[in-house]
Specification:
single chain; about 625 residues; alpha/beta; Beta-Lactamase; Alpha-Beta Plaits; TIM Barrel; rod-shaped; binds ligand C2E; binds magnesium ion
Length: about 625
Amino acid sequence: MLLEERFLVLTGVALAALLAALVVVRFVRSGRLTLGRSAGYAWCRAAVEQSVTGVLLADLVSLRVLDANPAMQRATGLSLAELRRLTLEQIFVDEKDGESIGPKLRQADPRVPLRVRQRCRGGELVDTELSVNRLAIGARNALVVVAHDISVRRRIEAQLLENQQRLDHLAHHDQLTGLPNRHYLAAHLPGAIEEARRNGAMLAVLFLDLDRFKHINDSRGHETGDKLLQNVAARIRSIVREGDMVVRMGGDEFIVVLRNVRNPAQISETASRINEALAQPVIVDGRPLLTTASIGIALFPRDGTDMGELLKHSDTAMYQAKDRGRNNFQLFSPILDRRLKERIALETSLRAALQSRQLDVRYQPIIDIETRKVVALEALLRWQHPAQGAIPPSRFIAVAEETGLIVPIGEFVLERVMQDAARWRAGGAKLVPIAVNVSAVQLLRSDLRRTILKLSAQHRIEPEMLQLELTESAVFESREARYGESSEDAIARLREIGVAIAIDDFGTGYSSLSYLKRWRVDSLKIDRTFVRDVVTDLSDLAIVGAIVAMARHLHIAVVAEGIEGFQQLEKLRQLGCGFAQGNLFARPAPASACGRFLTGEPLAFAHDSEPLDRLEATGTSL
Ligand code: C2E
Ligand code: MG
Ligand code: MG
């Protein structure tokens, strides 16, 4: 029943009671009521007689019933004679304590209805509302009692209340996990903050986001995802205290509010217990599932004094936890906040860079160590910011990956490479394959194969002239299907059109032999960090030696990255490494300066005549 309907019922009931009371009172006041014997005012009598509302007349002192209309007799199940043998106190009892209501009846204000319970034949008690008027009939003082059965109304009210409570619960709780939701948080967190303020206590807001939940949802199905969420909700709830709030904000985000915190250690302890509990695998549909959580924490009053600030700062801290490798918790810190803001600014200017030609591509040759001939060029992205100068890829590639900007940026690089290659070829150069760095995001989220085929036709550069460099961690971590196709499938489909595949930064990730073999990669590039000290560090020497031997066995070409000195080069040659890249041969150069790499002749080292220590002091290239 709607609120308006409820209002109408109540108004109807009140009006009926008022009418009945008015009729009776007018009768008696005018002195024309003769208790059942008035013929002259038959219509008045008839009105009372036919009223659906019970009316009683009783003596004010003894409260004995003097008269009762048929509605009253029907309502009580008692005849007029039976009623006349009773007092009002025997018919009505107080609705709360069941005590005698005589005094209340005698002092009743006619404008304020009395809620009582009415005894009926058989002992049943019916919720009733009385309006009581005092009047004098000659020398006798009497009470006119209009009794209205409100049991139906009561039931409706109770039902309405229950429905309202159920609606409130639905609106403030999450269906899936049964936890309170963001509306509940909005309604209750300000109160909890206020309470902490009054008590001089701390309050902690923990922002919790599951790691890689989307991946589980996509690969194992939504039903499994739902079960996992229910399980996570129960595990978090089991860790915190009764009075603490656990809220599902939506998706895989939860908020935990720890109230009345006296000791900050308590917060870290709870957060790490949540991390630990969630890191335990759960069996869902007979298969183990593993998820972890990144938690960001903001404290009242230190990190914020209102709900908005605390939520925002806990969210910021959560991103920091993600950044630090997930499955951990971080307390909000203004320094982290500043870094995050810088990152957001970086994202904005990177978008602008893409539009306003601030991006460029440089090329660095890859050399055959024995012949010194250039066997390939690696395309390296450059960003020349109008105000900040050159921004290295190490600063912006990760942001581009996170924001998805890497897809259009990657397309820009491929297009530029194809254009440059076409121009070099047209200029009579001896073209070599060009290596292009590709992020896992590009591999999985964009149709690289289609882009390459399109550009290849447009610029008349065969896909065989392209080599894609993928980092092993990027490929390995995302090897399960995410956007419909697994990276393994994507790689296989790229190989089909003739594109070669290289594993970049080898040694820094999983260095798994099995997938090198399975994916039939064409080459691997030993990361600069192993090459750097290969002359002085025995363990680096052993690692590089092992990688080279293994790759030779699998017929995979090996490129040593970041060669800066002759001694390094010599060591790698001795180990059997076939190819090298580094500042020793050439720094990444603009397209217009690449002619000297594309002669087909051994590369004249730019630094052949320079002393080694000077070369090594030059640091990274740009
Ligand atoms: P990478 O693919 O391993 O590229 C080699 C990096 O080593 C380049 O850094 C190169 O300039 C640097 N390098 C080459 N020889 C030497 C040397 O002798 N000494 C030193 N110290 N450094 C040397 P860069 O250009 O700063 O690129 C860094 C990383 O950024 C690349 O590592 C690659 O992972 C990524 N990157 C660059 N361009 C792109 C791109 O177009 N797309 C994507 N997704 N990633 C890119
Ligand atoms: Mg590379
Ligand atoms: Mg590399």
